[in-house]
Every structure is written in structure tokens, then in C-alpha cells.
Specification:
The complex is a heterodimer of chains A (179) and B (408). Chain A is an all-alpha fold and 179 residues long. Chain A has helices at residues 2-33, 36-55, 63-86, 90-97, 105-112, 117-123, 127-138, 143-150, 154-178. Chain A contains 9 helices and no strands. Chain B is mainly alpha-helical and 408 residues long. Classes of the chains: A mainly alpha (179), B mainly alpha (408). Chains A and B meet through helix 1, helix 2, helix 3, helix 6 and helix 7 of A and helix 1, helix 2 and helix 3 of B.
Chain lengths: 179, 408
């Protein structure tokens, strides 16, 4: 009886974690895969895989960091798969995944976020800069958490974050000059 | 440029799944969870080892860094046993006061690990010093030396509280950090007037010979300075939400949602606290004096009026004034609780609401509402069960913003 209550409690807590972090994980995925539907799928997979770990009774010290890690790994896998897909024929690709390489995901993204000034600036940055800025300033992860996620030291994260901010300012200044 | 950056990141943070998408993913997740049920044996083993399965909010420091000082302090405290417990009631000048401040409180400081715990503890610490001043004042022993000592300590703890709040702002969402500030402000509510009332009462008797109004004002000012800094921050939160909602078209929808959430949260808290104050008054009616009962019951009524006014504002969808009314209702309810609690704790009756007493003292016998036992049920409203604080917020005909306050 006690175990059942605990099980129900875990499910309720996990669904609360979903309410709490779903948007942040979705954003994180979206700014990495630049495709809304894929971002949604990766978000869903992230929570499902994390639940499987919880259900196995494994301990997760920091559910938020864990979710980011799972999402990050899924995105890396996704990128790896895409790289492989490029080596297959277009027909195979269409048949296997429905993926249409004729549509640039970034263009899709721009259309989705039409009018978003911030998105335009974001797209002008390198992937590395974008990743670090999103993790630090949008997802608001601590340098140590980002360091654990990316497998580098917190110092490296601080330096990268500083440089990325500098480049963001340059992009913003360019925008002002154009006007 | 910094503003431009802030705006940039704020805009990026706005992006989220729409309600239908969120629900869709949530349903898929729920179905998945039913297919992958919890391994009960593994869970039980973990429970027996005392481990949690997951925590929503991560510890920010390493385990050893967090727990080592706390563990050492607990061991020390266990060794001291009853001495430590006895010291809890000590005031400056008592033999055990040093144990209370330097041992017991050091342990509790070490035990407060998260920013939220630190905010709660530093708030408690400020009120402990104030209550010591009140106890000394009631005994006529709030001398210049004690006043200076305690006002300095109030200022020190207040600075630590501010630091903890800033830390909480960085680690928690804005609403949670705002709630912490509101709770801290409420904990200080009425203590300045209470202390002045106690001193006035004690000085009118022979007990107050060693006390002077100037000395007491040091502590009163320290209390007011702490309360003012917390109130200012509360106003800032509300103002920033209102300003964002009106002037910045980009995020007006989000800000409006936040304003609604703020008002609703305050409503639930106000309802709860007003009901609590009335119940506390009824429960302790036999232990308090007539003067205290009269003042407290009047204050509770004013709290109920504010609550009702807030409900009207909510009905009219005037959220910022509604929030103000609910905060006022909580403030008044807390004030009533403090007055009753102080009468029991210090065995002294004080006047903290002079206008109430002067105008109405003749009607005292008729006005003490705590004798009307039916009023307890009325405090939560005519159509609700006592303690059902969620009901009315569910009735509110507005969109349902997400509640980011889940804890584990």
C-alpha cells in the first residue's frame, strides 16, 4: 500500500517536473534543431527517457540538469543521424523519414518566428556561441551545470560565455549601424 | 547595451509550446509512464536506504561542502543536549544567551542549505532578536546596552536576509522569490508597534525605570528599516509586472498572465491567513485579556474587509488593486495573530491600535467577535468549507497560467 502511494506520488512529481521544465527544454531543443515539430518530439523523448530512468528506481540528483543532458544527447544523436542521412539518396531519405532536404529548417524557423528580432540576431551567431548563450542566459544554467553537460570545465564555459556575449554585442551593433 | 541584451534574452525566453502542444506531449508522456511502471522493488530498496529518486531543484554545492559544517554542528548540539534546548528561551543578560546565539543559531545557520532555507532562517533570526527585545521590554529590562546590542543584531541579520533574498532571486523564479520576500515582510509585521506598546505599558509602571524611549527607538528603527526594504521590493515586483504589461507590447500577454497569477496567489494566501487569524483568536480567547481581544477582533474584521474588497476587484478584473487588497488583508491578519500571541507569550496587554481602542472601548463587551463561535466558518466565505482555499481561485474566469512552484 505504501509503495503504491509512493508510486503515485512519483508520477505526480514527475508530471509536475514536466509542467515546470517542458517549456525550457522545448526552447533549448528548438534553438538547437531549428524545427518546431522536431523540438517537440525531442522534448517528448527527453521526458519519456528520463521517466524510464526514474521508474527503474535510479536516483537523479538534479532533474533539471538531467533533462538538459538527455535533451542534449538526443540532439547530438539527431545531428549525427542527419549527417549520415546526407550520405544516403534523396529517395531513401524521403521514404525513411519523410525529411525533405529541399526545405531549410532555418528558413522554416524564421518563418515560424517571423518578426522576432532576437531570432534574427541568434541566427547570425555561430552554433557554439548560440548554444552557450542559450544555456547560460535563456535556460539560466550555472556555468558548472553547463560544464557538466558539455564535458568541459566551468572556466572554459565562463570564457566561452564571455566571448559569445561579445560577439552578440557586435551583431547588435551591426544591426544599429545598418539602421 | 545591457538593456538591449536583456531584451534579447527576454524575447528568446518568451518562446514556448502552445497549450494544445503542451497537453499533447503531456498526454503522450502519461501514456508512456503507464507502460513503464515504477520498479517497486528498486524503489523500496532506495527508500530503505533513505534516498530520494529525484529532486527538482539541484543542490548548488558539493555534498561535502554543504553538509560537513552542519553535521559537525549537529554532533556538537547532540552533545549539549538539554542545555541547548533550555537556552532557546534566553534573552541578553541570561547565562544561556551565548549558547542560544553562538551554538544553537550557528547550527541552524549551517543547516540552512538552500537559498530558500536561508531566507526562512534569517527571517526567523531577525524575529528572534525582536522577540527578545519584546521580552526584555515587558520585564522593564530593555536597557541602553540591550537595545544597542539587539538593534545591531537586527541590522546584521537583516543584511544576511537581504543577501539570501538576492541569492534566492538568482536561483528561483521571480514568483517564488517574490513570495519569499512577502513572507519575510509579514513575519515582521506589527512588531514595531508591539514593541512601542510594550515599552509604553512597562514605562507607565515602576518596571520601566531602566528604559528610555530613545534607546527603544534604535530597535524600532532597525525593524522598520528591514520591513521597508522588503516592502519596497514587493512594490517593485508589482510595478515591474504592471509596467511591462502596459508599455512593452511584446510581452504584454505574458505580463498580464503574471499579474493574474500574482493576484490569485495573494488571494489564496489572504483567505488562508485571515481564516487562520480568526481561528487563532477563537482558540486562544480564554488566554488573552479583553483589551487584546477587542483590538485583535477589530483588526481581523478589517482584514476581512480588505479580503472582500480584493474579491470585488478580482471580479472586476482589476488585478493590481486586488493584489494590494489581499496583501493588506494578510498584513492585518498577521498583526492580529501577533497581538494575541504576544499577550500569551509575554503576559502583558498592550495597545497597538490606539484609534480602535479609544473610539470603541465602551463597546468592548459587545464587540469581541471571538465569542460568536459561528464566525469561524464565516471567515472563509459563505459558500466555502473552511480551509478550502483553492476553490475560489478555480472559480476565477480567467485563463490558467502555469504554476511554476512545484517542489520536491
Amino acid at each position: 500500500m505504501m509503495k503504491d502511494t509512493r508510486q503515485q506520488g512519483l508520477e505526480a512529481e514527475f508530471l509536475e517536473a514536466y509542467e515546470l521544465y517542458a517549456d525550457a527544454i522545448f526552447r533549448h531543443c528548438l534553438y538547437r534543431v531549428f524545427n518546431k515539430e522536431r523540438a517537440k518530439e525531442v522534448t517528448q523523448d527527453t521526458f519519456m527517457k528520463t521517466w524510464e530512468v526514474v521508474a527503474r528506481g535510479e536516483e537523479i540528483q538534479n532533474i533539471r540538469a538531467y533533462l538538459y543532458r538527455v535533451a542534449h544527447n538526443l540532439i547530438v544523436d539527431e545531428a549525427r543521424r542527419r549527417k549520415l542521412r546526407k550520405e544516403t539518396s534523396l529517395e531513401e531519405m524521403r521514404e525513411a523519414t519523410g525529411f525533405d532536404p529541399g526545405v531549410d529548417d532555418r528558413e522554416q524557423m524564421q518563418r515560424y518566428l517571423e518578426g522576432s528580432d532576437a531570432m534574427q540576431r541568434l541566427l547570425e551567431l555561430s552554433e557554439e556561441d548560440r548554444e552557450i548563450l542559450i544555456l547560460r542566459h535563456v535556460d539560466e544554467l550555472e556555468p558548472k551545470e553547463i560544464a557538466d553537460l558539455l564535458g568541459v570545465t566551468a572556466n572554459v564555459i565562463s570564457v566561452r560565455s564571455h566571448r559569445a556575449l561579445k560577439r552578440l554585442r557586435e551583431v547588435m551593433n551591426t544591426k544599429h549601424e545598418k539602421r | 547595451m545591457k538593456n538591449a541584451e536583456e531584451k534579447f534574452f527576454k524575447e528568446l525566453k518568451m518562446l514556448r509550446m502552445d497549450t494544445a502542444e503542451r497537453e499533447h506531449v503531456r498526454e503522450a508522456l502519461f501514456v508512456h509512464m503507464q507502460k513503464h511502471t515504477v520498479d517497486k522493488d528498486a524503489l523500496l530498496r532506495r527508500m530503505l536506504r533513505g534516498g530520494a529518486t529525484f529532486h527538482a531543484k539541484a543542490p548548488r554545492r558539493l555534498w561535502k561542502m554543504q553538509f560537513a559544517p552542519a553535521l559537525a554542528s549537529v554532533v556538537l548540539l547532540a552533545g549539549l543536549g538539554g542545555v541547548s534546548y533550555a537556552a532557546e528561551g534566553a534573552v541578553p543578560g541570561d547565562a544561556l544567551y551565548s549558547v542560544k546565539v553562538h551554538i544553537n543559531e550557528t547550527v541552524r545557520t549551517a543547516m540552512a542549505i538552500s537559498p530558500e532555507q536561508r531566507v526562512v532562517w534569517e527571517t526567523t533570526r531577525v524575529t528572534r532578536r525582536i522577540e527578545e527585545a519584546e521580552a526584555l521590554a515587558a520585564r522593564g529590562e530593555l536597557t541602553q546596552e540591550n537595545s544597542t546590542l539587539l538593534s545591531n543584531r537586527v541590522a546584521e541579520h537583516s543584511a544576511a536576509l537581504t543577501a539570501s533574498l538576492l541569492e534566492a532571486e538568482e536561483s528561483e523564479d521571480a514568483a517564488t522569490a517574490g513570495d519569499m520576500k512577502a513572507e519575510a515582510a509579514l513575519a515582521l509585521e506589527g512588531h514595531d508597534d508591539l514593541l512601542l506598546g510594550i515599552v509604553a505599558s512597562a514605562m507607565s509602571s515602576v518596571q520601566g525605570d531602566d528604559m528610555s524611549a530613545d534607546d527603544v527607538s534604535l530597535i524600532v528603527e532597525a525593524i522598520r528599516a528591514t520591513a521597508a526594504s522588503l516592502d519596497d521590493t514587493q512594490e517593485d515586483v508589482q510595478e515591474s509586472l504592471t509596467t511591462d504589461g502596459i508599455s512593452e507590447g511584446v510581452d504584454s500577454k505574458e505580463s498580464t498572465a503574471e499579474i493574474i497569477v500574482l493576484a490569485k496567489n495573494q488571494y489564496a494566501r489572504a483567505e488562508e491567513r485571515v481564516a487562520e487569524s480568526r481561528a487563532y483568536l477563537v482558540e486562544n480567547r480564554d488566554k488573552i485579556g479583553e483589551l487584546t481581544a477587542l483590538q485583535a477582533s477589530r483588526i481581523v474584521r478589517r482584514a476581512e474587509e480588505s479580503l472582500h474588497l480584493g474579491e470585488l476587484h478580482l471580479e472586476w478584473r482589476e488585478y493590481p488593486p486586488a493584489t494590494d487588497d489581499f496583501r493588506e488583508a494578510q498584513r492585518l491578519a498577521q498583526r492580529a495573530i501577533l497581538l494575541v500571541e504576544a499577550n500569551i507569550r509575554l503576559a502583558i496587554e498592550v495597545v497597538i491600535e490606539p484609534e480602535e481602542v479609544i473610539e470603541e472601548v465602551d463597546d468592548m463587551a459587545d464587540e469581541v467577535i471571538v465569542e460568536e463561535t459561528d464566525d469561524v466558518a464565516d471567515a472563509t466565505g459563505p459558500d466555502e468549507e473552511p480551509g478550502d482555499e483553492n476553490q475560489s481561485s478555480e472559480e476565477e474566469p480567467t485563463e490558467e497560467p502555469t504554476d511554476p512552484s512545484a517542489t520536491f
